[in-house]
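call fold(seq) -> tokens
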Amino acid sequence: MPAGYFGSRAGNQRKVAGMDDYLPALTGIRNELRGGRSVYEGYQRSWGLEFGELKTHILADPDYRFAAALAEGRSVLMLERMMNLFLLVKFFLPRLPFGHIVEYGSFRGGSAMFMAALAERFLPGAQVYALDTFAGMPETDSAIDAHAAGDFANTNMTEIQAMADRSGLTNLHLVKGLFQETAPTLLPQIGSIVLSHIDCDIYSAVKYSYDISKPHMAPMGYYVFDDATVSSCIGATEAVESFVIARDGLLSEQIYPHFVFRHPAAG
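ret:
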């Protein structure tokens, strides 16, 4: 377990400035690790977004508003999922050992730009790597995937890069190609990953993204699966069920607004 992440007593974890004023304080739930995840922190984010006042806090936050403006019209992520990424980058990733953010499936670059803008503020030196064909989906499995090859082809890497340059996002790197062609060379070069944002809709892409990330994840790093709880993405759901849960035995820290898992503390 990373030094200082959790203290010896429940509730004695290292804080990031502003956390206590921002996130809900929950009673009756012990603030400790259970099954490799923090149930308390999962409730803070998920309950806070679904039933509490977190949306109000976030919408008024100038850091969120700046980053969200870059993603406007470029992302199909639901609002609450974008907000959860914001909470992770602002309050939770800074407590982990240094590492980078990798996104699998970037479409028009909205969520990648969003995270890059936040990383510049809260994760000095961290880079965001956005992996995509930038030409639509590859072949899919009609036995499980509702999406087909060529879906989400209305994107243009040159245009995305131009927008990133105009926005001054020097920490954002677009990586064009199939994941299996780019990730095996890229990931060993970049080093540790603190957030693997797996924004893929199909079984094969989700399985590959998760498996290729594992050797490079920081202890207690975050796997966020955007589409595994979406009605049109049962292939993504099956990949999480079969490999993250059944094979590797991970327990989710959040099921709302999307699946969030933690990498084991022991590597």
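The mean pLDDT is 89.
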